[in-house]
Amino acid sequence: MTDILVPRSMIADPHRFGGMAHGDCVHGAPVVKDGRLMALDAPTGTATRMVLPKLVEPHCHLDKCHTISRLGQVGGDLHHALASQRADKVHWDEDDIRARATKGVKEAHQNGCRLIRSHVDWGDEPAPPLSWSVLVELAEDHPGLQLSALTSIEQWTYPEFSNTVAKVLSFTDGVLGAFVHGHEKTRAGLEVLFATASQHGLMLDFHVDEGSGGLNGLEQIADVALETGFDRPILCGHCVSLMDRPSHDVQRIADKLARAGITVCTLPITNLYLQGRTDGTPDRRGITRLRELRDAGVPIVVGSDNVADAFCPVGAHDPCAALALACVAAHLDPPMGDWLPAITTDAAHALGGAAVTVDGAHLTDMLTCDVTHTADLLSGRVPLRPALDTLM
Question: N or C: less crowded end of the chain, CB within 10 Å?
């Protein structure tokens, strides 16, 4: 068995795991027992292969993906994208949704994902949409696929809607989600939503402040979380308007997020495409304050978001590609291993899953890649492969 490299951030207890320091990794001969990587012995030669846990896709849209081929002329801000995708729903029958979503899930698995969360547009009625039913069936065949209902925060102020949706989510192991974007009844909707999630034991996931201007849904979410003592995972995606805030506001909001245990999910591929549009080349781009949030103790995760639809015509269900773009957009500097938890352990924790590290993990839960540096791991130049195929 040849020597391997393991990113130090992917090891729960680096001191006990063994091996020799090699940049932001450790290098050594793998010790495998009963199919599990238990430790590293002293190096026997030069390592040309890296090992890490399987990846997590914390935010995508399997109901929308791979529709770009029939959308015609698209390209605009969030509101244009919403209108274009809404018009496409005339094609959303059972076969269409299943085929596109299955393609997305397979793509995520091919890119090393073990855990995936997809948002699903709920619509205006309390009853679940067809896409929810189709994706619930798909999830039965693909363990590790979570579904989050994407609703408007104001809809939660209507008892019939909140009661019906909560029952459906409880029955189908769903996640309670909402879109928060300057709505007049945001606070009232959040109070009902948190109470409903507490009553039914549901996790929370928000699309929040996806734009510029005076949007402040993120702080309101943190306030309600702190006031209620909510103890289930909360994930807040986008949070783009935080870029418009002065540093003292950012510090105040970040402190609340950290105290509430809220994770922020940045979605650079879609937001860089949608945000900051002008008549020419954009001079403002859509990403939140990743470095400031992390410095304040807020967990950061990275998702692929929209793939080949009205919100983004390109992309892939590939957490490594999303993290690589976040590195460019937000100046996330090396060592890149420090950011790997954003698509592995921290992302799993944000989704309520087990944060798998390499020490003691079964080979079926890990990946290998023929690279010698964590920056190369994110380059996309070499494929990720199941560790079971190369370490046994």
Answer: C
Name the CA dihedral angle for 344, 345, 351, 352, rounded to a multiple of 10 degrees.
150
Backbone phi and psi for residue 359, each to the nearest 5 degrees, phi listed first: -70, 110
Instruction: Report the pLDDT value the prediction gives residue 158, as an integer from 0 to 100.
Output: 96
Name 213's Cβ contacts closer than 8 Å, sequence gap at least 6: 182, 241, 244
- The pLDDT tens digits of the residues spanning 59-91 come to 999 999 999 999 877 777 778 888 898 899 999
Q: Which of 47, 41, 33, 36 is nearest to 17 (CA)?
A: 41
Q: Which residues in the chain land under pLDDT 50?
A: none
Residues 96-119 as b/e (b if ≥16 CB within 10 A, e otherwise) read bbbebbbbbbebbbebbbbbbbbb
Q: Would you state the structure tokens that stand for residue 136, as one six-digit string?
A: 């619930």
Lookup result for tokens 């849904």: 217
Q: Which two tokens stand for residue 331?
A: 């100046």
